[in-house]
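It would be a great kindness if you could assist me with a short task in structural biology. Thank you for your consideration; the sequence and its tokens are set out here.
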Amino acid sequence: WLMPTLCGKNYYNKPAPYYWLTSAMQWLTEDTEFAGRAISVLFSIFAVILAYRLVRKFERKSVAMLAGMMLATCIEFWLLGRYYRMDMPFAVSMWAAIYYFASREIGSVGDRHTRNSCWRGFYFWAAVATLFKGPAGLALPVLAIGAYFLVTGQCRRILEFFNPVGMVIYLLVACPWFVAASIYYPEYFDTFFGRENFKRMT
């Protein structure tokens, strides 16, 4: 259960949690193909709901529904929503992280409690994305929001990323599996983080 296998060999290319979800769905449905596709479908529905809720914060209901429909009928979105791959869960988890940040920006919320809640949601979903496909689950949302800060002349707000509670949430959610995998399979850390992530990006 700790490490996925492919043709009897340890599969270090991707983290295991996505395969846990598909295995659980397969156990429930007793259908291998449907199980994998169902996970993508469920996350696709979640993405449409997030799109609706985000637009609804600053537009009327009909416009928010249109936004959800536009997303749901995009060809690439529709195709990824049917694939037996972790791409849709990964993308939607990052979208959920950015949703929490965008919700605060749209609402112009300034009180400390709400601000911290938004960053907690951001880091939780970034951690989920990390569990699906690796450190890009945090890096991509951070880059997107960091670029927003730079373009809008709010460079000092980059310090907001260093939210103590949010960072702890990220570590508690994302790190246990990676630590356990690296302990039980010493070659995993270098293979996954070195070859599959750092070397691919550089």
About this structure: DSSP finds nine helices and two strands in the chain.
